[in-house]
Amino acid sequence: KLNFKDTYSSLTSSEIVAKEQSNMDDARFQHCVRVSETARKLAELNNYDPDKAALAGFVHDYAKQVPVEEYIKVIKTKNFDQDLLNWSRAIWHGIIGTYFIQHDLRIDDPEIIQAVNRHTTADVEMTTLDKIVYMADYIEPGRDFPGVEEARKITYKNLDAGVGYQLAHTLEYLIEHRSKIYPRTLEAYNVWSVK
Ligand code: GDP
Ligand code: FE
Ligand code: FE
Ligand code: FE
User: Fold this and answer.
1) What is the tens place of the pLDDT at every residue in 65-115?
2) Ligand 1 probe mutation, 36, 91, 120, most atoms within 8 A of CB
3) Terminal-to-terminal C-alpha distance of the chain
4) N or C: the chain end with fewer CB closer than 10 Å?
5) What's residue 39's pLDDT?
6) Is the minimum distance from the CB of 52 to ligand 1 under 6 angstroms?
7) For ligand 1, is residue 64 a contact (CB within 6 Å)?
8) Other Cβ atoms closer than 10 A to 115
């Protein structure tokens, strides 16, 4: 079922699947499979290449469980903004996750890399693939939170409206828990959610 075009990596799709499986626990792996399937569906509805969306969705959380010490080493040695040291894996696994995806999975396609980079925070500008991965992550069938049914309904009807819904609800959640807001999340909220 997981069979990706070999155009995006020098690795075969079974090598990509095996590497991903060995980089995370089973619950996270199953989430990635469901995000891949949801991304494929959203691509079909929004005139985007379903195979490319499925691959981007599959790898989006590749680096979610990479040890913190490894992230810190990469931030310090690979030309990342040193301000990232003030954040945590919630923010790192998208923005710096791209480093591990390029290095380990040999995926260099700029659209896929950007969609992974933006999948947690969103951004002021979002391509169709960015939106597909961002929303597939939020509404995949394993998600269960108050409002997820409405999020699904809105997103299947209008992808942009889904982005606005998610950003508003994420911001509410972060504020309610007194969590630090990444500036890009707030900038994206101002573009996609403010009425
Ligand atoms: P997951 O990797 O599938 O669990 O989903 P995401 O990558 O979308 O999100 C990871 C976590 O980052 C979630 O708990 C979000 O609420 C959180 N998150 C998103 N934006 C921000 C932000 O601006 N600041 C902080 N502290 N967390 C955020
Ligand atoms: Fe994620
Ligand atoms: Fe997300
Ligand atoms: Fe995810």
Assistant:
1) 999 999 999 999 999 999 999 999 999 999 999 999 999 999 999 999 999
2) 120
3) 41
4) C
5) 98
6) no
7) yes
8) 30
* Cα–ligand 2 centroid distance for 185 (angstroms): 14
Q: Is the ipTM of this complex over 0.90?
A: yes
Give me ligand 1 centre to Cα 94, in Å: 9
| CATH number of domain containing 72 | 1.10.3210.10
Residue 106: inside a domain, yes or no? yes
Q: Looking at ligand 1, which atom is closest to the CA of residue 182?
A: 23
Residue range 46-65: average pLDDT? Answer: 97
The residue segments making up the domain with residue 108 are 6-144
DSSP letters spanning 31-78: HHHHHHHHHHHHHHHTTS-HHHHHHHHHHTTTTTTS-HHHHHHHHHHT
